[in-house]
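Let us work through a complete example step by step.
Step 1: write down the sequence.
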Amino acid sequence: MSLMDDIKKQLGFFGGFTLTTRQLTRPRVTWSYPDVKKPKQPRQHGRHVLNRYEDGMEKCIGCELCAGVCPADCIHVRGLDNPPDHPVSPGERYGYIYEINYLRCIHCDLCVEACPTEAITESKLFEFSFTNRADAIYTKAELVVDDNGMPQKLPWEDWREGDDLMTSGWMRATSPAGDAAFEGEVAWSPELGYGTRAPEGGQSEHRDDEETGSKELRDVLERHLLTEDIPKAHRGMRGRVWRLRNSTAMHKKKLDAALARYKAKKATHE
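Step 2: predict the structure and record it as tokens.
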């Protein structure tokens, strides 16, 4: 055995650190949860809300279509005729009883699709738990938005900034009757506190990604595209440099946010 082979044998245990050393140079994928959360997708299916018109009237007309289409049978609705002197909704009827059992709900969004008045939509909030079964049954008092159009925030729900924005965004992503000429055209009523929500664009130029929070497929799933569909600037060594710059900018943004939180926390203790 030569001297070099003997040295390699003596230092062979360093080979076990190869994988660890390789991972040290890669971007971190973990988040400091729950202090920091990963941004949610524009079409996130979360806790339901019952919306109101800008004049304060409820959108729900008690038609019970959401309850009829629900595959989990978790929605219970009963309609009642509107009082002539103080109507609750613009229609002849309104939702007198509205309950959702979240022990059954599978967040399929079929209720949102069936609603003719866009009364029920799903927020991005999905982090909520219960200490008893009664809390899992949300009544109308908990589902209807307040006088500012904001969802009711219950003690066991972890609401964060943006969880109430672009609720059920997928329902604004497709064009009426499949006609691409109407893609991006507003065909829904305004909501209390939010006005007219922006349409989510599809494959045409009618899109406002900054407002809706949506992203192009090639920006988030480029590695799954065919080589000919990937821009030349993102291929080979140029693509690696481009991804490295994006990763560096993202980590710098996270670091700046963490430093800002640290400074704010330190200032409160002083």
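Step 3: interpret the result. The chain has two domains: 33-214, 217-269.
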